[in-house]
What we know:
The chain is an alpha/beta fold. 36% of the residues lie in helices and 17% in strands. The chain folds into three domains: 10-197, 3-Layer(aba) Sandwich (Rossmann fold), CATH 3.40.50.970; 208-362, Rossmann fold; 378-552, Rossmann fold (3-Layer(aba) Sandwich), CATH 3.40.50.970. The strands form five sheets. Strands 4-3-5-6-8-7 form a six-stranded parallel β-sheet. The longest helix is centred in the first third of the chain and has 15 residues, at 71-85. The two termini are 35 Å apart. The relative contact order is 0.10.
Amino acid sequence: MDSMLPIRIKKKISKNKLPKTGAEIIIECLRAQGVEYIFGIPGAAIMPILEELRKKESVEGYPKFILCRHEQNAAFMAACWGRLTGKPGVVLVTNGPGATNIVTGVATATADRDPLVALTGSNPLAQHMKKAHQSIHTRDIFNPITKRSIEVEDVNSIPEVIAMAFDAASARRQGGAHITFPLDIQKNLTSSIPIIQKCERSDGVSSRDTIKKVMAILQTAKYPALLLGVGATHSLKITHAVRKFIKKSEIPTIGTFEAAGAVSRELLKYFVGRVGMKVREPGDVALEHADVLLTIGFDPIEYSPAYWKMKKGCKVIHIDTLPADPDALYQPDMELVGDIAGNLSELHAQLRKKFSMHPAVKKARAFLFREQQAGKRLEGKKIHPLRFITDLRSVISDDTTVISDVGSHQVWLAKYFFCYEPKHLLFSMGFQTMGISLPWAMATTLARPGKKVISISGDGSFLMSATELETAVRYSMPLVHVIWRDGGYNLVEIQQLEAYKKSFGVHFTDPDFVAFAKSFGAEGFRISRADEIIPTLKKAFAVKGPCIIDVPISMAKAV
């Protein structure tokens, strides 16, 4: 990861008349960065910071502490806040196990390109070179999984260090940053003052000559394809430029999981489906027949080119804020690097051609849409996944946020659940971490107050973070969490059966999830027949606090 990012131009926020403790200046710096919430769990090594948060608890403009039940979930919440707002989410934990418990959450944020700043406490500096209680070299632990990991060794450097961390987390490619504050640094006095960025980042538009060369390639295309990646939904400005280009060009469009929502309802007729399932989908058919492939905001971690079967001689045009990574299987013929929206606008202005869909792609797309429509007719003793998805889509509006955990339900949602607003269908594809959906839903209720939020997990992934249901109840978070109950790690079992014809270590029993929810003070429902899906969802969305829905799901394969 980049550990030498430049420090941007800064401006002073205030001037301290009297020295303050390191903990005080930490909170002042977080306030200057516009931090609204800090997700975390208390501990001895961060007590001075927590005390300053307590003092400022009722003061407007200062961060509010969200007390969680497990550090990993706190990190998940902070990362989701960063994804939805574009501003780094903040997680605060103590040293030792507190720090190591957020490792998965921080690694997930970095892999998924979600801006996050992790703050950890540590033993006093004098203890760092000898054995001590809960002493661990956190800077070294987080260095491989963040864009920047820093240990503060001088109380006067706190403002610069915090600015560096937020700068690293925010800069493209976004991700995690980490700071560890020794206990004595939190208590020492300093006259330093907070600093923040003064200048706004702006990426340039490619030269006229480069745009002209790209247009020359596009103009020769007969059956091009547009592959949208995570960057296509990075901002509303980019998504708007993407939609304008699709509308004018009528280009067949494919999306990765994390590009969900870039294609509007109006443009659905040009949408071929999503790729990333490692099997031949309609989007893969489009890749196979494209003579020119235009990628926008694509990151190979979303869908490795190793799974593509591109037409020989296909020209590739890469449009992103960053150059394409060196990859033997992904070597663009042209790159427009910098301002995605600006470069798309230039292409839009010069485009004089409308494109058509290859007959094979039309056929594959039509089959996908027929499958999708079949969901409303599916019955059975257990709920068919496609029936649930169909009924869910009919109940919610386009501004409802739908969050998927990792498992077979993720594949079903990626293939059949269409979303029409950016960042309103959320997946973890960089790290594919189980247990993220409930914490993400909780963070979404804070980032999008007043909007409906529904998260979906398997029964296996739910219990990995189910303790946070108490947190959701305590803060009266209005969310609906659906558990697809099949009594095992279904996606792993499918892979085992394909590879070995046998499954092992994937089955378990389930608790009474309705009783479980009510024991926490949440509402709980159980769906036993397909005709109960819609009325139950409507009841759940009417609940003011968190609600759990238990759904016995069939073992049908999505692909």
